[in-house]
Amino acid sequence: MQTWSLVSLCVLLGLAARWGVSLNSYSGAGKTPMFGDYEAQRHWQEVTYNLPVQEWYFNTTKNDLNYWGLDYPPLTAYHSLICAFVAKTINPEWVELHKSRGYESPAHKLFMRATVLVADLLIYIPAVVLYCLYLTEGSSKKKVSTLLCFLLYPGLILVDYGHFQYPLCTSAFLLFIYSDIIIVICLLPSLKVSISLTLVLILIDYIKKCILYKLYCLVSFKAHTIVRV
């Protein structure tokens, strides 16, 4: 019981730190014409909501890839789509095609910050708790200390809640997959090879696509710049 009380306290401290950082500004605020990564995340919601899946990654009259073109794998795109459905319900102007470019308001900032916090609560924090309490060795005090370090790590908090992205989701998937592999090996030895291999392949595929999409976009941009020159 005492351990879980400390865990709850760690989670509350982590949430407080996150929300405290989110009260400040974000990268690119008010800076035309691109507005920074905050606008990139908002724009991806706009694109995924208004365009069919087959047009998400292609340059068309409705999807200008030079303006924060979607350059992350489909898993990220579907996350943007889920956020877009919520945004559309609250205020359709937030994801209105083309007309919402550069949209900034206190209400929208609150919504965008909330999407990161909800992702943390549903994905990252459970993954960290699972890993620290059940898959690390040592005393309860050491496990709680490790949990606190995870939840208060400034790098991810500043990127997610200051600069504005969702890297904590990827970190959570890594922890979940690692945790699943350990659990399978310990509890289900007869299935450990097939299930563990499947999970590892999913992880490798996701990371590979992240890297390939980034490289493709970089090479395409460089080639386009050279051609124009």
TrEMBL record:
It is an enzyme of class 2 (transferase). GO terms for molecular function: dolichyl pyrophosphate Man9GlcNAc2 alpha-1,3-glucosyltransferase activity. InterPro entries: Glyco_trans_ALG6/ALG8. The keyword Transport does not apply. Its EC number is 2.4.1.-. Pathway: Protein modification; protein glycosylation. Its main location: endoplasmic reticulum. Residues 1-16 form the signal peptide. It catalyses: an alpha-D-Man-(1->2)-alpha-D-Man-(1->2)-alpha-D-Man-(1->3)-[alpha-D-Man-(1->2)-alpha-D-Man-(1->3)-[alpha-D-Man-(1->2)-alpha-D-Man-(1->6)]-alpha-D-Man-(1->6)]-beta-D-Man-(1->4)-beta-D-GlcNAc-(1->4)-alpha-D-GlcNAc-diphospho-di-trans,poly-cis-dolichol + a di-trans,poly-cis-dolichyl beta-D-glucosyl phosphate = an alpha-D-Glc-(1->3)-alpha-D-Man-(1->2)-alpha-D-Man-(1->2)-alpha-D-Man-(1->3)-[alpha-D-Man-(1->2)-alpha-D-Man-(1->3)-[alpha-D-Man-(1->2)-alpha-D-Man-(1->6)]-alpha-D-Man-(1->6)]-beta-D-Man-(1->4)-beta-D-GlcNAc-(1->4)-alpha-D-GlcNAc-diphospho-di-trans,poly-cis-dolichol + a di-trans,poly-cis-dolichyl phosphate + H(+). Belongs to the ALG6/ALG8 glucosyltransferase family. Dolichyl pyrophosphate Man9GlcNAc2 alpha-1,3-glucosyltransferase that operates in the biosynthetic pathway of dolichol-linked oligosaccharides, the glycan precursors employed in protein asparagine (N)-glycosylation. The assembly of dolichol-linked oligosaccharides begins on the cytosolic side of the endoplasmic reticulum membrane and finishes in its lumen. The sequential addition of sugars to dolichol pyrophosphate produces dolichol-linked oligosaccharides containing fourteen sugars, including two GlcNAcs, nine mannoses and three glucoses. This is Alpha-1,3-glucosyltransferase. It comes from Notothenia coriiceps. The gene is LOC104962120.
